[in-house]
Amino acid sequence: MPKKRSGGGLSPTQQAAKFLGVSVLAGAVLAGIALPAVGALGLAAKGSVESFDELPVNMKTPPLSQRTTILDADGGQIATVYSRDRTVVPLKDISPYMQKAIVAIEDSRFYQHGAVDLKGVLRALDKNARSGEVSQGASTLTQQYVKNVFVEEAGDDPTKVAQATQQTIGRKIRELKYAIQVEEELGKKKILENYLNITFFGQQAYGVEAAAQRYFSKSAKDLTLEQSALLAGIVQSPSRYDPVNDETEAMKRRNTVLQRMADVGDISTAQAADAMKAPLGLKVSKPKNGCITSVKGAGFFCDYVREVFLTDPVFGKTKEQRAKIWNQGGLTIRTTLDPQAQKAAQRSIKDHVYKSDEVATAATIVQPGTGKILAMGQSRPYGVDIKEGETTLNLSVDGDMGGGMGYQPGSTFKPIVAAAALEDGMPANKVYSSPYQMAYPSPVSACDGKRWMNDPANPAKLENENSSEVGPYDMREATAKSVNTYYVQMISDIGICPVTTMAKKMGVVRADGNKMPQVPSIALGTQEMSPLTMANAYATFAARGMHCTPVAIESASRRVGDKTTSLEVPKSTCSRAMSENTADTINTLLKGVVEDGTGRKAGLGSRPSAGKTGTTDERYAAWFVGYTPNMAGAVWVGDPAHKRKMVGITIGGRSYPKVFGGEVPGPIWGDMMSGALEGKPVENFNTVHIPDSKPRDRGDGDDDGGGRGDGGNDDNDSFIGGLVGGNNNGGGGGEPFPTPSFSIPEGFFRGQSNGGGNGNGGRFG
Question: What is the mean pLDDT of residues 105-112?
Answer without folding.
Answer: 91
